[in-house]
Every structure is written in structure tokens, then in C-alpha cells.
């Protein structure tokens, strides 16, 4: 086992097998010391072993409900992981502040993530509903989420579509609407 000490950081390079080094970096421990037990493990490894259950639970929660998408770009992978961890932390804070929220329900994390996503996208969807030109798929999606499209916007869009027959007509209709 190789132990390194710098003023702010501790490095430990333990080797379980000859060809697999493990690097641990700690800012919590001021100096390298060995924990008093029969295994003679450094304190950094002992502290990690005591708290790794929490890491496993977080990984399990992320694997159940995640915002990850398939990508080969590592910054996106890091970003998706940060969002997943932020959602877990916000759920913990929410449950600490509101202990009687959805008591007795099995899938309270899924319900929380649904409400969180709706609250984060609501202002954008409200602005989107007011836009006069929306693609049909976007209109259907907004209506399925319960947003009401204004009928006058729909009528204006239909009347513009009837006026426009060529690119030249589209240019003139645009000029008329702008003026």
C-alpha cells in the first residue's frame, strides 16, 4: 500500500491485486493513519466502507428513475448524473420539510419527479401555448398535459395557411402582419 500526503490532500493507493491499483483522494483526513482493527486499513478506506451503503442506495434510485439519455459525450453524462443527484437531494429536502406528503404510497419518488418536472416546465409551456404558430404534434402534446390552446390563435393560423399558396405570398403575408 502506498500512502501520499500533501498539505491539503491525502492519496492512498491500496492494491487488492497486483494489477489493480485503487486511488482514493480525501480532503476530510488531515494525515494518513491506520484504523485500529485486525485488517489494518487506513482511516480513509474505513470511513468509505462505513458510508458506501448510501452511495449504493443513490445508485439504485438513479437506475430506477433517471433523466439520462444515450450519448457518447462525457460532459452530457456528467450533467445528467448531476441532475439525477439534485433530484434525489431535493426529494430528501422536501420530505424533511413535509413529512406527511404522500404517506403510505409506494412510488412517492416517481410522484415527486413528476411534480418537479411539471413545475420546472410550466412557465415555458405557458409561453408556448400563447404562440400563434405551433406544430400539430406540439399542440397535441400541450393539450395532453392539460393546457388549453386559445381558439383565436388557432383561427389566425388557419386563415394564414389559407392565404399562403406560394413563397411569394408568404413573404407578402408576413409583411402585412408585421406592418
The biggest beta sheet is recorded as:
3 strands, antiparallel
Strand content: 5-15%
**Main structural class:** mainly alpha
Helical content (DSSP H or I, runs of 4+): 55-70%
Low-pLDDT segments: 171-179
Strand count: 5
* Sequence of strands across the biggest β-sheet: 1-2-5
Gross geometry: elongated
Element order: H for helix, E for strand: EEEEEHHHHHH
Q: Gap between N and C termini, in Å?
A: 77 Å
Number of domains: 3
- Enumerate how many helices there are, as a single number: 6
The radius of gyration computed from the alpha-carbon positions, rounded to a whole number of angstroms, is: 28 Å
Q: What average pLDDT do the residues reach?
A: 76
What does this structure look like?
The protein is 57% helix and 9% strand. Strands 1-2-5 form a 3-stranded antiparallel beta sheet, with no helix packed on it. It has 6 helices and 5 strands; from the N terminus they run E-E-E-E-E-H-H-H-H-H-H. The protein folds into 3 domains: 1-64, no CATH class; 65-129, no CATH class; 133-179, no CATH class. The chain has helices at 43-64, 74-97, 108-129, 136-144, 151-163, 167-178, and strands at residues 2-5, 10-13, 15-17, 20-21, 24-26. With 179 residues, the chain is mainly alpha-helical. The relative contact order is 0.05.
Short description:
Residues 171-179 have low confidence and may be disordered. The protein has 6 helices and 5 strands; from the N terminus they run βββββαααααα. Strand 1 (2-5) and strand 2 form a beta hairpin.
Furnish the topology, listing elements before pairings.
Elements (H helix, E strand, L loop, with lengths): L1 E4 L4 E4 L1 E3 L2 E2 L2 E3 L16 H22 L9 H24 L10 H22 L6 H9 L6 H13 L3 H12 L1
Antiparallel strand pairs: 1-2, 2-5, 3-4
